[in-house]
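Section 5.1 Outputs to date
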Amino acid sequence: MGPSPPRPARGILTIPNLVTLVRLACVPLFCWLLFGQDDRTAAAWLLAVLGCTDWVDGYLARRLGQVSELGKVLDPTADRILLGTVVISLLIDGRVPAVVGWGVLIREALISGAVLALAAAGARRIDVQWAGKAGTLALMVAFPLFMMGTPGPWGRPSLTVAWLFAAPGLALAWYAAVTYVPLARRALAEGRSERVAR
């Protein structure tokens, strides 16, 4: 039997967590650029950078051996805050198709509600699934492209590419939501077993 994998560290001020906090701090900056400055191009570029760096904190955590319990909670929480704020902002601005925007918001509301309910019931925490991360990444690529499309500076080609990312991104996001159901049942059962064992 091989050695057991290292347990997540309890560190707070780690480089991956700081990266996550920086990404989270860019959320009000995005809203300020979009609504305060009416600069959709700058807001779109900021959003593109945030989308492309979504994997950086997780990569650094594994690469530097700084995986932490806080990071495992902070990263998906930051993703949900960023995604929810962006979608609501773009729905207000009218730059994202309603079917995409509402599809994302309903999914995020269901997932967030389930996470809170499971935590209240004492379930074991569920790790983020690859499909959910891939779906979020695809959507974060699609949103700035929607912003830059017609009547934006990149026109219809931007909208076409945006849909090429948005459609599979939304499908992956909902697929991940469905796969959470059996995982949630297992986590709830394991949580109850741990409480009984104590």
